[in-house]
Amino acid sequence: MCSILSALLYPENVGRVVTISSCMAPYPTAIALRYLRRKMIMTDPNWEHGHYYDKGVYPLDGMCIAREIGSLTYRSGLEWLERFDLRRFNDTIQLTPTFEIESYLQNEGLTFAKKYDPNSLLYIS
């Protein structure tokens, strides 16, 4: 969607567009999930209204959760079931990751948060 919009708004800067994954319009669920991802970043106390660069802080928690939410949208429910089933990561009942999928999402969030700029994610979502 961003590539198509860029071509429409700035045709003088765009020679050609190759869209490999797009739809005519997003489903309301997709809009809602992008909203939640943005909200997770912006409600992190370290976001500092986007001025975290100068303050020496980084909205790590918000970025991790935003990525975890995003990761859920990349596969279907059946794919998640086939990949993780209901296997437990830890047999002890606790508030930290118990199921393998929880551990996977936690790792995805942390890995992504260490490499991607929160303000960039806000603007492309």
TrEMBL record:
Molecular function via GO: homoserine O-acetyltransferase activity; serine O-acetyltransferase activity
One of the GO BP terms on file: cysteine biosynthetic process from serine
Entry-linked SUPFAM superfamilies: alpha/beta-Hydrolases
GO CC term (a single one): mitochondrion
InterPro entries linked: AB_hydrolase_fold, HAT_MetX-like
Protein name (Swiss-Prot/TrEMBL): Uncharacterized protein
Organism: Rotaria sordida
